[in-house]
Amino acid sequence: MMRYRVLGPFSVTVDDKAHTPSAAKVRQVLALMLLRADRVVSLDSIIEELWGDHPPRSAVTTTQTYIYQIRRLLVRAGGGTAHDDQTVRTVPPGYGFRVGPGQLDSWEFEQCVDRAHALLDEGCVDRAAPLLARARSMWTGPVLADVCQGPVLRRHAARLEEKRNLAQELSLTADMRLGRHRELVAELKSLVMANPCDEWLHAQLMIALQRSGRRAEALAAFHDVRRLLNDQLGIQPSGDLRRIHQDILKEDAPAP
């Protein structure tokens, strides 16, 4: 089965054999169609992706050549002929790219996150947690880490990165509700170092430390974030952070 990976370095494989295109602009076009799989990608948006506001006179015919090269690559990878391929379809005003279940990692990722989000809302934390762990494990780096990205790809990649952040937040929330505080401390410390101005992460670290019996460290974590926010942004911690700090001082159990 043909598989496409966009959550990290770009790859196209069939039975673990690589068929990823090497030409930079062909990679861009294929990547864009994959991030918009099962939707119409207009010819204008492909041209914008490749050349921005200054397309050459040959933009339309050159783009059509790239589409032909993608079709030929997919046919060769699948062992068929040009007449067999229905993956890339001409659909005015552009093209559509068809993927099936299990072929595209970003599609699987979004399905996992959406399902887990619904399960969390229903209170089914034990069913949501493994789905979120699976969703997060699909990432091996930034979206299309080795593909040159123009304005259109950057917009779609940013949306996926935001969904990755949501998956991380939901996963941490689920694990906190399941009482996995001790196991989360190391991960939360790492995330706080990578995202020093994210007050929500600081709050989760404080709660995890307090619930792991590390009250002094939880209080120290509050003083660290207060100093950081003041030094870097000239602001004080949010009301939620201050409330958690007060709960820890009173030895109450802060809400996650």
From TrEMBL:
The keyword GTP-binding does not apply. It comes from the Bacteria. Signal peptide: none annotated. Residues 1-99 form the OmpR/PhoB-type domain. Residues 1-99 bind DNA. SMART domains: BTAD (SM01043), Trans_reg_C (SM00862). The keyword DNA-binding applies. Transmembrane segments: none annotated. Keywords: DNA-binding, Transcription, Transcription regulation, Two-component regulatory system. Pfam families: BTAD, Trans_reg_C. InterPro entries: AfsR-DnrI-RedD_regulator (IPR051677), BTAD (IPR005158), OmpR/PhoB-type_DNA-bd (IPR001867), Sig_transdc_resp-reg_C-effctor (IPR016032), TPR-like_helical_dom_sf (IPR011990), WH-like_DNA-bd_sf (IPR036388). PROSITE patterns: OMPR_PHOB. Belongs to the AfsR/DnrI/RedD regulatory family. PANTHER family: TRANSCRIPTIONAL REGULATOR REDD, TRANSCRIPTIONAL REGULATOR REDD-RELATED. This is BTAD domain-containing putative transcriptional regulator. It comes from Streptomyces vulcanius.
